[in-house]
Specification:
Transferase(Phosphotransferase), domain 1; Neuraminidase; 5-stranded antiparallel beta sheet; Phosphorylase Kinase, domain 1; alpha+beta; 14 helices; 879 residues; 6-stranded antiparallel beta sheet; 4 domains
């Protein structure tokens, strides 16, 4: 298919053809809908007829379209015209790296500058679970302003490449003639594992990157032969000529870095592009001189064990350079710079429980709520330091927030609002708070607002809170208060029959209806409103004087961690151009383990899994799978015999927390249909969306377990009140569906599971100050037994009731023998095996009835959540 000038492709107006490649033609086009020029890649007819190549094209669009990074070409649209698929992307002006390197070696500083950008872009792709597999100069584009863009994710590792087939064999032999007698193609940039047809991972891109950097520095390919076969043999057997002998300006340290990329064995290379980018950063600061120490094998092993520590050291050099170059001024004309901050002390962010990381108003420090070994505590991370420091006295802290002068931190802990100096000291209690998940904001006059159903106000010294804004009859509650710069007006989210961002005032009971969106919102200088929609962090112009929005929102970041039912997304902004946010982690896997800890197989493909639940007969698995674009979960059911998933729910919004009926024919779940999540029921063969079982309460509800006994069918589920926090309630499915409490205290109770005989209930409570597993008699009486000794959660019963399992804070699956007698008694808890779950938030593993196999939601290679810090983030908006 060929388009001349002024032709139309969908809504796009073709201007001119600007290129042609192996997969199709590329056109310069105009998008009249949003008035911008774009590039369109259209498959040629012979590719449309070839289903394998067509799939390659679709993989390219899916892979690149899921990425949002300044060093990766942006994908705007994918569509089909007259049977020919096409991808619409940003229009780049400049030249490919191939056009640059054919002119000879690059200056050392320029080569390292380009290499840093490539490594940073690859790190972003690898964090999404995407391996490019075709890094070469033709797929690297240098824009006119010197930015490197990675192109063509056409054979990204979204599926494993089959070996031993002709169709794959010709991929690395494609030749691109760039000059007389020169044949350069993908063969010269393949890793040894690609040549052998072995499985590949992100270290494959590191090898190809090394080939590209070698060529930038020497003007010659690292591996070359008279034929493709000889080139591939050179990759497997030969080492390239020393760079120091081909370019006198290349120092020994830079030569060692390139060689470390080109190790034949992937275990001996850099283990991540992020580590590679760090070493390039140190080289750039020393002009790649011989003074930079080499990387020995011990250091390489250390990278494998504690990459977050290495990233922290890299951050020290990185941020110090930014500070020395005037980073503190937010008016810099440069682009946005992003880097990652990982939780300290091998900890994790308890993300879905609360907001866990906040940048200070002066943009110099992060406060982070981090859980280590079952204990949550606040940590302070100065951006010009490689280390974080814990704040003593902040145990069980959630939802931290800063004072306007960046000197103090407010937080909530065990039903109290507290404050502490950012440099340490003793924590001061400000007041009692009726809920454990309150959220606060601190005004310039010392007023603190916090949400606890209504919005309350209190002075930062101490005192009794009073209602600032009371909830109305059509509202379930208010959340996420945030002061505007005048410290008189404040944003907050109302969720009820209509979920929207409102503006309240300390001087009036009137509110302003600002924006209908299910997200917390914050004000960002010099005049933006930040909020999340469909997983994207958006910035929209906001007049703080007129209290209104204008213009269209602009995407700042994609794939934010986003819990739609309560509008939770973890992002914060300083007064001087520093943005911090948590984006989605890499995909997790569903892995079978034996009782002894041996891996027995895998279910499905990597995805955003959570809330896994085996059916009573162990033949099916219900699981939440987050949408790749928005993160909003739907329920799916795997047929385990066939290893095939089928959609169970697909309504807009969140459906999660599946619980099987005892006969395995129905599932009760939680859904946020026009209200905070509440209980719904759906049969497996029912095409409808499910029926509501109860009424929304304003508290996030979800089911824990289902019991059938002499009373009929009973659901034990989570609900709560301001006075009792998270409770365990019982819902009878027969008759008028009576609800009665099973356990209501001032503490949080949850994760309840009935014993197989229905006599006992295992559950989790934080009454001791941390989460522990307890057992109570279902018949009542008030007596309870603590099962876990040093923290535990996610209890599960064996099918015969003779054993109880739970997850310890150290990551070990624990087994406890249940003794048969008139009085409940247990043996000593013993560890079975260690697991790395994708989260510590509910439903991350389950066990078969016989207790012999465990299905675990295993964290991906880059699953550990990190905070992305973006410096001068508004500069990208101006572009």
């Amino acid at each position: 298919m060929n388009f001349g000038p002024n032709a139309r492709l969908g809504r796009y107006e073709i201007r001119a053809q600007i290129g042609a490649g192996g997969m199709g033609e590329v056109y310069h086009a105009h998008d009249p809908k949003i008035n911008r020029d774009v590039a369109i890649k259209v498959l040629t007819p012979d590719f449309v007829a070839d289903q394998d190549r067509l799939r390659r094209f679709e993989y390219e669009a899916q892979a690149a379209g899921s990425l949002n990074h300044p060093n990766i070409v942006a994908i705007y649209d994918v569509d089909v015209h007259d049977g020919s698929p096409y991808v619409v992307s940003e229009l780049l002006e400049g030249e490919t790296l191939r056009s640059v390197v054919v002119r000879g070696p690059l200056p050392i500083r320029k080569a390292i500058e380009y290499a840093q950008q490539i490594a940073t872009g690859l790190a972003a792709a690898h964090a999404k679970g995407i391996v490019h597999r075709d890094i070469k100069p033709e797929n690297l584009f240098i824009t006119r302003d010197g930015r490197v863009k990675i192109l063509d994710f056409g054979i990204a590792k979204l599926i494993e490449r089959k070996t031993g087939t002709d169709e794959n064999a010709d991929l690395p032999t494609k030749k691109l003639h760039t000059g007389p007698g020169v044949a350069i193609g993908t063969a010269g940039y393949m890793s040894p594992e690609q040549v052998k047809g072995q499985p590949v991972d992100s270290r494959t891109d590191v090898f190809s990157f090394g080939c590209v950097l070698y060529e930038m520095l020497s003007g010659e390919r690292a591996f070359k032969g008279a034929s493709v076969v000889e080139t591939l043999n050179a990759i497997l057997k030969d080492d390239p000529v020393d760079l120091t002998s081909t370019n006198n300006n290349v120092g020994a340290s830079l030569d060692r870095l390139v060689r470390h990329c080109l190790e034949k064995d992937p275990e001996h290379r850099f283990q991540s592009a992020r580590d590679l980018a760090f070493d390039l950063e140190t080289l750039s600061g020393s002009t790649a001189s011989n003074s930079v120490p080499s990387l020995n094998s011990k250091q390489a092993r250390l990278r494998n064990i504690v990459p977050w520590a290495i990233a922290g050291i890299g951050l020290l050099f990185f941020v110090l350079a930014l500070y020395l170059s005037g980073f503190r001024s937010s008016s810099s004309s440069g682009g946005t710079v992003r880097f990652l901050v990982y939780p300290p002390n091998r900890g994790i962010f308890q993300w879905i429980v609360s907001s866990s990381s906040v940048i200070s108003p002066d943009g110099q420090k992060l406060v982070m709520a981090v859980t280590t070994e079952g204990q949550t505590q606040l940590w302070i991370r100065p951006l010009d330091s490689p280390t974080s420091q814990p704040l003593a006295g902040t145990e069980e802290a959630v939802n931290p927030f800063w004072s306007p002068d960046s000197h103090s931190i407010g937080f909530f802990s065990n039903g109290k609002l507290k404050r502490i100096d950012a440099n340490g000291g003793s924590a001061q209690t400000i007041c009692e708070v009726p809920v454990n998940d309150a959220v606060g904001t601190w005004g310039r006059d010392g007023t603190i607002l916090f949400s606890a159903g209504s919005i309350f106000r209190v002075t930062a010294s101490e005192g009794n809170p009073i209602v600032a804004v009371a909830t109305g009859p059509d509202e379930f509650g208010y959340r996420w208060p945030y002061f505007l710069p005048d410290s008189r007006h404040f944003l907050f989210l109302s969720y009820g029959k209509k979920t929207e961002v409102l503006i309240g005032s300390l001087d009036s009971k009137d509110v302003v209806h600002l924006l209908q969106v299910n997200s917390r919102a914050v004000y960002a200088p010099p005049g933006y409103l930040l909020y999340v929609k469909e997983g994207a962090l958006l910035a929209q112009s906001f007049d703080q004087t007129k209290l209104n929005l204008s213009g269209e929102p602009v995407a700042v970041a994609d794939n934010l961690l986003y819990f739609q039912p309560v509008g939770l997304a973890d992002f914060s902004v300083s007064n001087n151009g520093v943005l911090a946010y948590q984006a989605g982690a890499s995909l997790s896997r569903l892995v079978w383990y034996s009782r002894e800890g041996a891996q027995l197989g895998e279910i499905g493909k990597p995805a955003d899994y959570s809330w896994i639940r085996l059916s009573p007969d162990d033949q099916h698995l219900a699981v939440d799978i987050g949408d790749a674009r928005t993160g909003t979960p739907d329920l799916w059911v795997f047929d385990l015999a066939r290893n095939t998933p089928e959609h169970f729910t697909s309504e807009p919004g969140t459906e999660w927390a599946p619980v099987w009926s005892p006969d395995g024919t129905k599932i009760v779940f939680s859904a946020d249909r026009g209200a905070p999540p509440f209980l719904h029921l759906k049969a497996l063969n029912d095409a409808a969306s499910g029926n509501a079982l109860n009424e929304p309460s304003g508290y996030v509800q979800f089911p824990w377990d289902w019991l059938k006994n002499s009373e009929g069918d009973l659901i034990i589920y989570r609900d709560g009140t301001a006075a009792t926090n998270s409770d365990l309630l019982l819902l009878a499915l027969a008759g008028d569906r009576k609800i009665r409490p099973f356990l209501q205290t001032k503490f949080d109770e949850g994760e309840a599971r009935f014993s197989p005989d229905g006599k006992w209930v295992a559950y989790v409570s934080n009454e001791s100050g941390r989460r522990e597993v307890y057992v109570r008699s279902f018949a009542g009486g008030g007596q309870k037994w603590q099962v876990s000794a040093a923290g535990g959660f996610m209890p599960k019963w064996r099918g015969d009731g003779k054993e109880l399992y739970y997850l310890g804070v150290d990551g070990n699956i624990m087994a406890v023998t249940i003794k048969r007698s008139a009085v409940f008694a247990t043996g000593t808890a013993a560890p079975l095996f260690h697991i790395e779950t994708a989260s510590t938030n509910y439903g991350q593993y389950d066990v078969t009835r016989d207790g012999r196999r465990f299905i675990v939601n295993v964290a991906g290679a880059d699953q550990k959540l990190a905070v992305t810090v973006a410096i001068n983030w508004t500069n990208d908006l101006r572009r």
